[in-house]
Amino acid sequence: MIKIRNIHRTFGQKHVLKGVTLTVNKGENYLLIGRSGAGKTVLLKNILGLIRPDSGTIAIDGTDITQLPKKKLEKVRLQFGLVFQDSALFDFLTIDENVGFFFYQHTKLKKSIIRKKVTETLALVGLEGIEKMYPYELSGGMRKRVAIARAVIYNPKIIIYDEPTTGIDPIAVDKIVTLIEDLHQRLAITSVVVTHDLEVGLKLADRLAFLLGGRIIFEGDKKDLETTKDERLIQFLKGTSGGPIREMEV
Ligand SMILES: Nc1ncnc2c1ncn2[C@@H]1O[C@H](COP(=O)(O)OP(=O)(O)O)[C@@H](O)[C@H]1O
Ligand SMILES: [Mg+2]
What integer is the mean pLDDT of 88-96? Predict the structure, then answer.
């Protein structure tokens, strides 16, 4: 579904991605882990075509997007649902308007039809009767759910979650994890989850990749993880400060 080969990306003097190669298979929950500042979000933005790599290829369902003109890129992008770290809801719009935003703004669908779609999607993420509320009236966990509803409403083939559980309390985290799993099973969506919360990530992952020093230094399933001999990965998994990963590498 997503095939990345040897991509590089530099910002000024900073070489953030130094030849990233990875493969996300159709229908899997793919986990990307790495320290803060490792380049996880930059990598996601490359997948979404929001940032172009300096070199390398990114194939989405067989189409290399790195050279695509804008119009065609936008079409590919419609296959993606996005859930960003800060939920990024519009504060001045109701939940209904937030979740149905794309349809209200960019289609001629009847309002009543959009409203019905919104209500159904909110139910799918376990939220009911909040259509008329505003984001500030909701808890952090509920806002995340709304953000997920807004991504799911387009029927995307791929959902990208960037730190979906950052900044919410442990019970809310657990609910979001369950929701992500549930959506994955019910909708058969390919998901890419980025997190530095290993516990969350490992619950969700079919396969995972570890980004360190601008490269994927590990890609495999959970079993491979148990038998890994890579000291850097072991250190990351244990979360110890002493080991081969030093501050300098971030
Ligand atoms: N648009 C940008 N311009 C300059 N530097 C950037 C830009 N986006 C990201 N970076 C740098 O790239 C590095 C990786 O960032 P990021 O992908 O956000 O890390 P994370 O793994 O925490 O998501 C950081 O050092 C960040 O400062
Ligand atoms: Mg990030």
Answer: 93
Quote the Cα angle for 87-126-205, to 5°.
65
Q: Is 39 exposed, middle or buried (0-12, 13-18, 19+ CB in 10 A)?
A: buried
pLDDT digits (tens, 9 = 90+) for 206-234: 899 999 999 999 999 988 888 888 888 88
Burial class (CB in 10 A: 0-12, 13-18, 19+), 31: buried
Could you give the CA distance from residue 237 to residue 242 in angstroms, rounded to a whole number? 12
For the entire predicted model, the pTM comes to 0.90
Atom 27 in ligand 1: which residue has the minimum CA distance? 37
Which residues, judged by CB distance below 6 Å to any ligand atom, belong to the binding site of ligand 1? 11, 14, 16, 34, 36-42
Q: What is the pLDDT of residue 22?
A: 96
Q: Give the largest Cα separation in the chain, rounded.
A: 59
Ligand 1: residue of 7, 9, 11 to mutate (most ligand atoms within 8 A of CB) is: 11
What is the C-alpha separation between 5 and 120, in angstroms, rounded? 38
What does the pLDDT read at residue 247?
Answer: 58
Percent pLDDT > 70 in the chain is: 98
For residue 43, give Cα distances in angstroms to 16, 60, 135, 231.
9, 14, 29, 24
d(CA 76, CA 79): 6
